Amino acid sequence: MKKTMVFSLLLTVSIICGCRHFFDYPFFTVKESGLNWIAIRHYNFRTTPMQRVSVRVDGNGLVTVREGTSILVTNPFAASHTDANWNDIRENRITVPREEIVPMFQMLVDAGLFKERRKGDSSNTNEAIFVSANIQAKTCGSEDDVYGSDPELAEHLKNIVLMFYRPQPVRKR
Fold this sequence. Notes:
Layout: H1 2-24, E1 37-44, E2 51-58, E3 62-68, E4 89-95, H2 98-110, E5 127-135, E6 138-141, H3 146-149, H4 151-164
Antiparallel strand pairs: 1-2, 1-5, 2-3, 3-4, 5-6
């Protein structure tokens, strides 16, 4: 009886450990879903005040692009409303066919979006890029500049930002 119990326990543990690798595998096939999304935040340090761009691409084809020097561009829950740049924010929404979103998400997955990365020194001091995503119920988020940990992925992310970001002239008051 004890041998059977021990065997079943070992079998259960080995199955769970074997499945864990499958669930953590960072490369997978992306399927069309309105629940998939990616949010990319790009900071340009060459300008004063710092220029921010945020691009969120949803699996349903809605792309939201924010730009400006306000902290609200990259953090819609910011509370520092006394900041001099608080009102410098512009937002555009673009609709893209859903079937065009899947290859974009697949390209990012294939580029290693969900790979574990070690923190590295940023090789590009003039800009920084951060990403958060939820694709096929797998999530990721970068606490550190992606240029420092994966410059190739950072370039892919920057290209997506440039696909949708069209600089708008600042209105003088």
